[in-house]
Amino acid sequence: MLIPDPDAPPVTKASLRRVARTFSPYRGRIALVGIAILVTSTLGVINPILIKILFDRALFCAEGCVNLDLLYGLVALMVAIPVVSGVIGIGQTYLSNLVGQRVMQDLRNGLYAHLQRMSLRFFTATRTGEIQSRLSNDVAGVQSVVTDTASSLLANVVIVISTVAAMAILSWQLTLLSLGMLPFFFWLTYRVGKARREVAASTQKSFADLSAITEETLSVSGILLSKAFGRQQHETERFRSENRRLAGLQIRQQMIGRSFFATIQIFFSVTPALVYLVAGIVIAGNPAGAGLTAGTIVAFTTLQSRLFFPVGQMLQVGVEVQSAMALFDRIFEYLDMEHEIQDAPDAVEVPKDTVEGRVRFRDVSFRYGEQWTLRDIDLEIEPGQLAALVGPSGAGKTTMTYLVPRFYDVQEGAVEIDGKDVRGIKLESLGEIVGMVTQETYLFHSTVAENLRYGNPAATDAELETAARAAFIHDRIVELTDGYDTVVGERGYKLSGGEKQRLAIARVILKDPAILILDEATSSLDTTSERLVQEALRPLMAGRTTIAIAHRLSTILAADVIFVVDRGRIVERGTHEDLLRRSGLYARLYQQQFHGGEVEAECEDGVVLASGEVVRR
Ligand code: ATP
Questions:
Q1: How far apart are CA 151 and CA 491, in angstroms?
Q2: In the chain, count of helices (H) and strands (E)?
Q3: From the alpha carbon of 522, which atom of ligand 1 is closest?
């Protein structure tokens, strides 16, 4: 399925060159395919010539006389040629498929590796379905061009040239007659091509919409949402209507192609009759026949029948090549996207065990788009300290933690680890230095052991167990049907929220990062689970610089320093006692969250908390 875009820019030399470069590793094999096509296409012209000789010299060499020796020879050749062509054809199909698949494989690998290194910004701004579609549909579209279109283009060019040459040798008058039809063909193809491009573009968009709907609504979160809001009927309708549109478009697309081929076929059948007519008129006017023997006429119509199909296809190919170039352009567009976050040329490796863990935000300002999300953040966290980030929702806490492992780069100022700007540390090192426990624990669809080893692929079974014990999850794991080999994650065994968090903690214990970022879950666990998670965290944080987006009282109380973030700025800092004494934002938040946070009564424009504070709507 190709994606022609009617508004696509014309095929440029640069993109053609780039496509050529994509194929260049397979030059040798492509040349072989070319030779095979040349041989088989030329062999095809020989047959009609043999027919002429057969008619004129073997079957009807003279009145009632047959030249048997010549007949045997010709028949042998007429049998041998298709056999040889067939065998070469098999090899050619194998080779062209091989090249097509290899190029596709290279493009997919290249795209995937490129995407892996794209910044978080790209993924937050792009629909998952869109990325998947480029990786699968677009690349697959390119493959069909290579194996089908490119080979058929070459074959058709050879067939047309050799056939026209042979026809001209047989009779230039009849050749002119046949070629006279071509302008009509050009016109027809132009019209059909245009219509097909338009329909195909709409089809592709419809495909994308349909897969986006599927992707969004059939994910676990999507289905939960539609169930929770009783919107299944609505979603089904939405899908159904888009699906109806898609089916209609595809039928139109098929029909446009079909009527084109029908026209070609009609020509294909009608022209021999015209040739007989013209030949008859020519012979009647000039009984010497201008060299038009029965053999010539039969050979000519045979040759001509070979011509129309390739011509039709060649004209089609123009449309397909253009569409394929549009696909290549879509792939190149992704490949050309710059990696926003990459190693500076002078970035250095910093081994994890040499890191002390001092974290410094030096006058940091950051924005996702137009508006500043963080402004003039200046703070320092000593090695081994636990720093808690506290603040209202949307204040910028998560964003702050994203700047340390360089999920995003700051616009102003710098984030430093041990006095070194993070942009000067190789990303691979940075990935080793910083560990994260996020709110939502993501587990791959794989065994418990493999999920744990994501933190340290080299960890032994004993180390896995030690980490799992430290995270208070070992006992739970051994209760599972296959213990550490139980498949969890997307379609595997479902662990509870608290268990998943403890597994995530064990994973980071195995990773043993120098700096830990902890985004505490806001969703509350039951008391036992909560306590287990806290107990699991204790050894993880001990002696390790930890930046926690704190939602638990225990974390806040244990923090060496608390930074209170509000609307992108640090508005207060200090220890719990200091901050409480100030009776500022922190004291208020603390009251709401941990003391008297329960709603006591509702008032006209809000609620009254047990602390006496009124929270307005
Ligand atoms: P919460 O406690 O609710 O998680 P937070 O303090 O962690 O909030 P952030 O997630 O850092 O807040 O968000 C800070 C601001 O940046 C918010 O206004 C948010 O809407 C905005 N923001 C977050 N991510 C993006 C993004 N990818 N693109 C644009 N704006 C974003």
A1: 43
A2: 22, 15
A3: 2
Helical (H) or strand (E) element with 222: helix 220-228
- Residue pLDDT, tens place only, 350-391: 998 899 999 999 999 999 988 999 999 999 999 999 999 999
Element (H, E) at 49: helix 27-53
- E strand residue ranges, 405-544: 412-417, 420-421, 434-437, 446-447, 487-488, 515-519
Take atom 28 of ligand 1 and give the residue whose Cα is closest. 368
Lowest mean pLDDT: which of 85-89, 224-228, 600-604? 600-604
- For the chain, how far is it from start to end, CA to CA, in angstroms? 53
The residues facing 519 across adjacent strands are: 549
- Which ligand 1 atom sits closest to the C-alpha of 120? 27
- 3-class secondary structure, 520: coil
Residue whose CA lies nearest to ligand 1 atom number 3 = 393
Q: What is the pLDDT of residues 223-264, one digit of tens each?
A: 888 888 888 889 899 999 999 999 999 898 888 878 777 877
CA 301/CA 308 separation, integer angstroms: 11
User: Is 63 buried (19+), middle (13-18) or exposed (0-12) by CB count in 10 A?
Assistant: exposed
Q: What is the pLDDT, as a whole number, of residue 603? A: 63
Q: Which of 89, 151, 152 is nearest to 314 (CA)?
A: 152
Secondary structure of residue 425 in the 3-state scheme = strand
Structure tokens at 141: 């579209």
Please report, as a single letter, which amino acid is at residue 264: I
Query: Positive or negative, the Cα torsion across 159, 161, 162, 163?
Result: positive
Is 406 in contact with 120 (CB distance < 8 Å)? no
Residue 395 CA, closest ligand 1 atom number: 6
Across the beta sheet with 606-609, the strand order is 599-603, 606-609, 614-616
Joined tokens for residue 120: 């978080």
Mutate to test the pocket of ligand 1, among 118, 119, 367, 368 (most ligand atoms within 8 A of CB): 368
Q: Residues lining ligand 1, judged by CB closer than 6 Å?
A: 124, 368-369, 373, 391, 393-399
Report the C-alpha gap between 316 and 300 in whole angstroms: 25
Quote the pTM value: 0.71
Instruction: Tell me the three state secondary structure of residue 391.
Output: coil
H or E, element range at 204: helix 182-217
Let me know the angle formed at the C-alpha of 359 by 434 and 376, rounded to the nearest 5 degrees: 120
- Ligand 1 pocket test: pick from 373, 517, 551 the residue with the most ligand atoms within 8 Å of its Cβ: 373
Q: Could you read off the pLDDT of 569-578 as tens digits, one per residue? A: 999 999 988 9
Which run of H or E residues covers position 306? helix 294-336
3-state secondary structure of 528: helix
Q: How far apart are CA 324 and CA 144, in angstroms?
A: 9
* Substitution candidate for ligand 1 out of 123, 340, 399, 567 with most atoms within 8 A of CB: 399
